[in-house]
Amino acid sequence: VSERAGRQRTQIYLDHAATTWPRPPRVLDAVTRAFTEFGGSPGRGAYELAIRSGRALAESRATLASFLGVADPHDLAFVSSCTAGCNLMLKGLLRPGDRVVVGSMEHNAVTRPLGTLVAAGVIVDIVSADETGFVDPDAVERAVRSAPTRAVVCQHASNLTGTIQALGDLADIAHASGAVMLADGAQAVGHVAVDIGALGVDAYAISGHKGLLGVPGSGLLYLSPAIDPDPLVEGGTGVHAADHDRMPPERPERYEAGSADVPGAVGMAEGARMLVELGPEHHILTAALTRRLHEGLLELEMRVLGPEPGVERVPVVSVVPPGGDADRLAFELDRTAGIACRSGLHCAPWAHRSCSSEGTGAVRFSLGWDSEQAHVDALLEAIRALTG
Ligand SMILES: Cc1ncc(COP(=O)(O)O)c(C=O)c1O
Predict the structure, then answer these.
(1) Which among 16, 82, 163, 184 is the best mutation to test ligand 1's pocket, defined by most ligand atoms within 8 Å of the CB?
(2) Which residues form the pocket of ligand 1, taking CB atoms under 6 Å from any ligand atom?
(3) Spatial separation of the C-alpha atoms in residues 135 and 137, rounded to whole Å
C-alpha cells in the first residue's frame, strides 16, 4: 500500500496499543532536530556536535527518569524496544534452577524469553488470571510461598483486555519472600501515572512508541540498584573503553553497548513532556471515551473482554464478535469505514486462554492521544451497519 493509499484508506486509527499514529507533530519536530542538529555520536568525540548529542541524551534520560519516578537516571537504560528490555531483564538475571512465578496475561515479549529459559532449566509457574484478566495477588502470594522463588514477573497492563494489575502489591509479595519483581510496562506508560519508585519494582520495561508517544526502535529499561543482570549485548560504550575487557559495571553504559539512538531518546523525552502538559485531565477524558466505547459495544451485543465498565483500565477494549470471526470484522471495518484496528491473538496466546477467547481471537480497539468521541461513535456506527 503506497503512503498515499494508506492516507486515503485510514480515516480513524484505533490501534494505539500497537503503536502511536499519527506521531504527535512536536515529537516529530524534536526527532528531526536530533537528526539535523546533534550529528555526532555521544560519548565518542570532543567536538561540538558529539557533545551536543551527549547532552541531549543525558537531558532526555533525566526528563524520562523524572517522568517515571526513577530516582537515579543512571538506572534507566535506553533499549531498542520493550521486547529488548524484557529479554534483558529475564535472560540477564535468571539462571538454571531459578523459579519464576508469572501471571497468565503476558505478551510474547515475556513468554518467549521464558520459554527459552525453561529449556535452559528455569522453572516457570503460571498463575492464571481471572476471566477479566486480573492476576489475583493472593494467588501470586500462595504460589510464591509454595517454593523458593527468584522472581515474580507480571505486566502492568494488558494489551488484550486493558486490565491494570496490582503491581505494587505484587512487588511487596515478591520482596517479602526474597524474590525480585520484574514488570512489563508496555501498555501502562502514558495511560496511567507510572511511579516506578513508588511501585517498588526491580525492573520495568517500557516501549517508546506506544503511550510514551515516541518513535519505533526506542524503549527503556529500569533496573533497580538491587539487581545486576548480565548485559545481553556487548560492545563499545564510548566512556570506560580502556578500563575493562568485559562490559563495565557502570550504568547506564553496562546496558547500552553500541552507538546511542539519540533521536529515539529525544522523541521519548518530548513525548513525556507532552504527556505532562496534557495532564491528568487527558487521562480522565480518555477514560470517559473508553467507557463510552465499552458500553456501546455491549449494547451491540459484542462479548467484551476484560473488566466491567467503571473498573479502571487502560484504553484498550477487545471484543469477540457474534459468530467469532474477528479477522472478518477488522477487515470489514477497514474496508467500509477506514477504521484501523487489530484482530487475532495480539501476541498474547496465554492471555486469550485466560479469557476463553483462544479459539476465536478478538478484535482490539485501542485509543490514544488524538482519539475523540467522533472516532468512537463512527466505530460503533460502522459495527452496527456490519452486524445489524
Ligand atoms: C504488553 C506488551 N509487552 C511488550 C510489547 C512489545 O513492545 P515493543 O514493540 O516496544 O517491543 C507489547 C507490544 O505490543 C505489549 O503490548
Answers:
(1) 82
(2) 18, 81-83, 107, 109, 155, 159, 184, 186-187, 207, 219, 347
(3) 6
Predicted confidence (pLDDT) per residue in 143-162, tens digit: 999 999 999 999 999 999 99
Q: How far apart are the first and last CA of the chain?
A: 30
Closest CA to 150 of 124, 131, 129, 127: 124
Cell numbers standing for residue 240: 570506560
Q: What distance in angstroms lies between residue 51's CA and the mean position of ligand 1's atoms?
A: 32
Write out pLDDT tens, residues 269-293: 999 999 999 999 999 999 999 999 9
Grid coordinates representing 140 are 501470586
pLDDT at 2: 43
* Ligand 1 midpoint to CA 364 (Å): 15
**Grid cell locating 202:** 526491580
* Residue to mutate (ligand 1; options 135, 187, 352; most atoms within 8 A of CB): 187
User: 384 CA distance to ligand 1 centroid (A)?
Assistant: 31
How does pLDDT run across 242-262, given as a tens digit for each residue?
767 899 999 999 999 999 999
348-382 residue pLDDT tens? 999 999 998 988 999 999 999 999 999 999 999 99
Q: In what order do the strands lie in the sheet with 123-127?
A: 76-79, 219-223, 203-207, 180-184, 151-155, 99-103, 123-127
Centre of ligand 1 to C-alpha 139, Å, is 25
**Backbone phi, psi, residue 348, to 5°:** -140, 65
- Ligand 1 centre to CA of 85 (Å) is 10
Which residues are CB-neighbours of 262 under 8 A, at least 6 positions away? 34, 38, 42, 53, 56, 57, 60
User: Residue written as cell 485509543?
Assistant: 367
Contacts of 321 (CB under 8 A, 6+ apart): 302, 303, 328, 329, 363, 387
Q: Give the span between the Cα atoms of 373 and 288, in whole angstroms.
A: 9
Q: Which atom of ligand 1 is nearest to the CA of 206?
A: 10
Q: Are the C-beta atoms of 215 and 23 separated by less than 8 Å?
A: yes
- Are the C-beta atoms of residues 314 and 188 closer than 8 Å to each other? yes
Q: Which residue lies with its CA nearest to atom 15 of ligand 1?
A: 186
